């Protein structure tokens, strides 16, 4: 009991030390507020609120129907412009897309000729331009195809494909990217905070003061692990409530308590990794390089950026030994699919086993490092 009492107060001392470190506090606040918002909304993988104009020289029922096929949230309300003024508007940057319907378009189509539609694209908006070109092509093709069937220019298709999107019906990229960004920040921050705390003790010489007390290397490491894990867990919970659900309006399908329990389990793995890297590194610069070398690949291979199934077979087997993969899989199942513990318990077991192994290795390395110092 006395030992647990010492670990608790030593961890509380770590929290107070973190509170006085304004750089780390600023990094903590940034990582769980603005950083997820910017990652979720800054890079668009779909068309959103794109400006579009129509230069309709045909003024037929079909051309007017084509103009009404574009609507929010993908596109702004269609603006009708004078024919021939498209390049001028494009040069002025007023529209990203301009659709020009030639005269006699519907007449040529009814005569079974092949009329052309011109689409001007402002390619300086690279993401929107590339994706929007496919959007516009598909929308125009679908409307013309529907018109051709209605006037008996062609037979209806023998097969009608109906797409149903599970767990994200509107295919909202913000919802998915926001949660993935939050999970990534949890991993980054936990490893950085724990490792920086260990190296700070060594650089300031306070590690010798701790060793002069009736404390073991195990007590020191455990105190730093629980303190930094608790800080990140509280920050993650607040970010989930106020940033994910509040600012980004992300709906959590499953249990938030279960998500935080999985996060707490993963945090002990990430803090153990921070202790391990801080034991190997001899300075803060070396520690930063090790974080980039190890944590970044773990995030990239976890299944958040690209599906694990899309990786080579040998690499998929290797990712089974990454706690980040199991945490990402469990978190996505809880948040998007509403999964319960009966579905994700294997991921929790994997995290517990890998975390225990990494914790034992980190404590062994830290104990040996402290012994060499003394």
Keywords summarizing the entry:
2 domains; 374 residues; four-stranded mixed sheet; abc type-2 transporter like fold; 67% helix; elongated
Largest sheet: 4 strands, mixed
The overall pLDDT, averaged over residues, is: 82
Question: Structural class, from secondary structure content?
Answer: mainly alpha
* N-to-C series of helices and strands: HHHEHEHEHEHHHHHHHHH
Structure characterization notes:
- With 374 residues, this protein is mainly alpha-helical.
- The chain has helices at 2-20, 22-32, 34-42, 61-67, 86-91, 105-110, 126-150, 173-204, 206-212, 217-247, 256-280, 284-300, 313-319, 323-337, 341-373, and strands at residues 52-56, 79-80, 97-101, 118-121.
- It folds into 2 domains: 2-43 and 171-373, no CATH class; 52-150, 3-Layer(aba) Sandwich (abc type-2 transporter like fold), CATH 3.40.1710.10.
- It contains 15 helices and 4 strands.
- Strand 1, helix 4 (61-67) and strand 2 form a beta-alpha-beta unit.
- The radius of gyration is 28 Å and the shape is elongated.
- The model has no long low-confidence stretch (mean pLDDT 82).
């Amino acid at each position: 009991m006395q030992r647990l009492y010492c670990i608790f107060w030593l961890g509380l001392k770590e929290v107070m030390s973190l509170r006085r470190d304004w750089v780390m506090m600023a990094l903590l606040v940034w990582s769980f507020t603005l950083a997820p918002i910017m990652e979720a909304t800054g890079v668009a993988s779909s068309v959103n609120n794109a400006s579009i104009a129509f230069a309709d020289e045909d003024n037929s029922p079909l051309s007017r129907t084509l103009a009404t096929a574009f609507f929010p949230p993908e596109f702004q309300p269609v603006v009708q412009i004078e024919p021939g003024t498209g390049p001028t508007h494009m040069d002025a940057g007023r529209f990203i897309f301009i659709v020009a319907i030639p005269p006699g378009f519907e007449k040529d189509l009814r005569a079974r000729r092949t009329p052309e539609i011109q689409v001007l694209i402002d390619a300086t908006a690279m993401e929107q331009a590339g994706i929007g070109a496919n959007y516009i092509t598909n929308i125009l093709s679908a409307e013309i195809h529907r018109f051709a069937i209605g006037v008996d220019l062609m037979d209806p298709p023998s097969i009608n494909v109906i797409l149903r999107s599970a767990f994200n019906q509107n295919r909202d990229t913000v919802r998915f990217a926001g949660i993935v960004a939050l999970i990534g920040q949890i991993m980054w921050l936990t490893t950085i905070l724990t490792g920086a705390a260990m190296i700070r003790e060594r650089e300031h010489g306070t590690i010798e003061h701790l060793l002069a007390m009736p404390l073991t290397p195990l007590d020191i490491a455990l105190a730093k692990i629980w303190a930094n894990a608790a800080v990140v867990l509280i920050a993650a919970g607040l970010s989930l409530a106020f940033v994910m659900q509040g600012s980004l309006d992300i709906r959590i399908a499953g249990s938030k308590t279960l998500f935080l329990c999985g996060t707490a389990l993963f945090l002990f793995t990430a803090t153990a990794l921070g202790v391990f890297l801080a034991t190997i590194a001899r300075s803060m610069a070396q520690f930063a390089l090790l974080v980039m070398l190890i944590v970044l690949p773990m995030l990239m291979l976890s299944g958040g950026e690209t599906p694990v199934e899309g990786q080579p077979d040998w690499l998929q087997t290797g990712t089974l030994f990454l706690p980040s993969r199991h945490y990402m899989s469990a978190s996505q199942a809880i948040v998007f699919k509403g999964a319960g513990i009966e579905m994700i318990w294997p991921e929790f077991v994997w995290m517990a086993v890998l975390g225990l192994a990494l914790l034992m290795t980190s404590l062994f390395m830290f104990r040996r490092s402290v012994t060499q110092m003394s």
